[in-house]
Amino acid sequence: MRTDLGDQIHELMERGLRLVSMADIENRSPARVTAVRPAVARLGLGRGRLILAGAAGIAACVALAVTALLPGSGSGSHTSQARVHLDRTAASVLHRAALAALRLPARTPQPDQFVYVEWANGVRTRQLYQAWLSVDGTRNGLIRSGGRSSVDPGCHHGHQAGQHGYSCVPAPAFLPGMPATPRGVLRYLEKTYGLGLGTGKKGLDRLGTTVDGLLSFTYLLPRQRAALYELLAQTPGFTVVPHAADVIGRQGIGVSWALPRGGDIIIIFDRRTYAELGLIAKGSGKDRNYEFGRALLKIAIVSKTGQLP
Amino acid sequence: MQAAGGSGPVVSAVPGTANDDRAAFERFVKETGPRLGRALAAAYGFEDGRDATAEALAYAWENWQKLRHIANLPGYLFRVGQTHSRRRRQPVLFDIGGDAEYSFEPGLPKALAALSQRQRLAVVLVHGYGYTLREVAELTGIRPTTVQNHLSRGLLRLRSLLGVDDEN
Predict the structure, then answer these.
(1) Between chains, do A212 and B90 touch, taking CB under 8 Å as contact?
(2) Which ipTM value was assigned to this complex?
(3) What is the value of pTM for the model shown?
(4) How far is B97 from chain A (nearest CA, A)?
(5) Distance of CA B17 to the CA centre of its chain
(6) Does chain B have fewer CB atoms within 10 Å around its N or its C terminus?
(7) A20 touches chain B (CB under 8 A)
(8) How does pLDDT run across B127-138, given as a tens digit for each residue?
């Protein structure tokens, strides 16, 4: 074992870092400028949209690929999809989760309110994670975790408060503009997050983590939540985990996807109600020490930071 | 996220740029890219950090005429990268993959990921790369005294997680 921690950190970082080249930059940048800027100027869209629209080529391919997976699209013979197994049981679990989501009460929060999320984080040692996230993304939120508090900076008129005028894009915790159909929500993810699905583990991981991020840190209307589950149900690559437990020991049924370099992430649902309980991730091989998990305790709307539902 | 496009359009297609600008920007990327990349990787993990770095530098390239005179452009671009990654409140991964041999503690990637983002920035940049507190402060927008606090607490926690008690 080496004792110089600084050397060890340096070695780890140097092994994992891949520097960005001019080719990487050009691949992202000119395509946006040349192909997208006229449309952006015409529509009056901001920089965030500009970035995301830059993936238009891939996004179009992804849209086609996923469209082919949707029921009734009639294009299921695509060769790259034929290699991927659509796990009917995982799809069934996700369908049930979608149906359960539709039975949840719908409440539309006000822009000046906050979404309160409360999680138990960690596998071996657990910490209470509490976050008050601005509904419209313009107000400073609050995050408490491990006995510490930090501000989740809001973005007002394109600038973060107290950040010397740095530009920003609001990250609202309520997304009234997000569609409530699988196809619509996929287009939304492509536009908003530049999400490229692909057919490999990496693409699946991107989809899974992005959807999980929305499920975990935004207040979704029942139909929006159902649409996200349906999108996962209609995407090959997810498998069912018959017996899974979240980090506080609640037993349920899981739907998993593979981490790009070994291991799995599992979203766990209550076996009876199909309500989402939480998520657990476990690496394998060289990543065998990687573990992460969180159990959902509460998600609610409150009027100010620090207020409990 | 994979970048759009395959071979990439020629540079002359970018409006308002010329060869001089390209040379200046390439110098900037060569000099600043690694620093920005290390900081964003420390904050978000290897993959998301690289994605954030590429996005920040692409933004700089698109707006080079406007941004090139900003005094602390690396710090500005660090914030751009942060904005890009802010939505992803996901586990931070330090995955080196492959079967390569290494001599660091096997638990180091997970232990680093368990630190707070600011602790990780301070520990990686100061302790791992030998940056000064002022350099980290300028890059990340955190005050030097705060960097020092995060460094002390981060090292303490890291050693505790790894079960080592050396003072290196």
Answers:
(1) yes
(2) 0.85
(3) 0.51
(4) 6
(5) 26
(6) C
(7) yes
(8) 899 888 888 888
